[in-house]
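New to this. Explain the following:
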Amino acid sequence: MDVFDLIVLGGGPAGYVAAERASEGGLRTALFEMSSLGGVCLNEGCIPTKAMLYSAKIYSGAAHGEPYGVRVERAALDHGLVLKRKNRVVKTLVSGVAAQMKAHGVTVVPSRAAVRGRAAQGFCVEAGGGEYSARRLLIATGSEPVVPPIPGVKEGLASGYVCTSREMLDLADVPKRLAIVGGGVIGLELAGYFNAAGSKVTVVEMLDKIAGPTEAEISGILLANMRKKGIEFRLGSKVEAILPGRGAQIAQIAQIAPAGGRAPGAGRAETLREGAVGQAGAAGQAAAQAEIVEADKVLLCIGRRPRLAGFGLENLGAAVERGAIATDSQLRTNIPDLYAAGDVNGKAMLAHTAYREAEAAVSHMLGRRDCMGYGAIPSVIYTTPEAACVGETPESARDKGLPFKTAKLSLRYAGRYVAEDEDGDGLCKILADERTGRLIGAHIVGSYASEIIVSAAMMIESRWAASELKKLVFPHPTVGEILRESLFAL
């Protein structure tokens, strides 16, 4: 049996960062990964989507560059070449993670691991025919797409006309019609790419807004911009069933409006026939409120859930809350020397959260004072325009009883923004605590939002009052200057 100081289950952002930091701290570490190093983020999430979205952005700039004095005859986006480049990017970064593990002396076991329990020597793990043990165990098994119990979904997945983001990122051909179930981050980003690539995209969202918890006004501006690009939205709508359609693998989404209401966009799509309603299992009286959305592909993007099954975790007795492993601010579970970091603990399913959680967990293992904070974690939607947020929204501040004041400014107050996007409708909104003057929230929609938001996160984390933050000097001209201007508008 191979004996280690730390065993890490999962080679995604939480797992490989934890392995690296632990090895740096002198812990003999083994990392188990049944697929590719880098996890969902690197192989089928953050990185491949950004590679594809950048190709779409370049294409859009060429195709619509005339107002900027750029004329390109018959610009085209070659989806096949986009995929080849995406795969090169992923391969390069996966190789980089592998090189880091080797450089830090981490033992990487490319196999599914199963925890058999805990003995005198520590946690016992089996993988690839071998046995391993360690005093400490970090669970970093990540998350998986939620597959909703909608009639027709399983059949559609089996037939190929329904897919998750994993399959969508390797789709060889651009579908003429794409229906996306879910208007959150993943759904919106893939809607942006496939719209640019030529698909007729329809997004179906149960809420009356897109982008989940994103601040309402920022969400509204993003929605308006995506609609301008030709992406259709059915908000406040429930997918009742996915039915096999007429012709070659055409899916039909039966969609029901809120009770007593009219289906959003009713009149612009084929009305659902009574027979189809019957197949969908809907009540006959709903026929007047329903419509069919026809698509060649249906993409499921209604969220992700912690991946707990198949690793023997039930043999440990770790507490689980709302489907996720419960952890404290040092990523400890209820079992001594057992930690959980990344999506598997359900705190904030973001790669950058996983990085920091991994560091906090390893710091505790090494006896260093450290803890995880979740109050200033940025979130970004990499559409065009980008949307980014950190901290409190007006709604969350009111729910917590926090007295606050807000300021909002058009990004047109930033000279560089006007120089690059003179017709843009970008916005920056910030919130400050009325009692202390400290910044508690920032929300931006517009170019470079993903890069600007980190400055706002540092402002919130530093807990400086706005009066002190105003003394910071921003380079000019930058779009990021909008943060300084917003502070003066408080």
Summary: The CA atoms of residues 24 and 73 lie 54 Å apart. The longest strand covers residues 130-139.
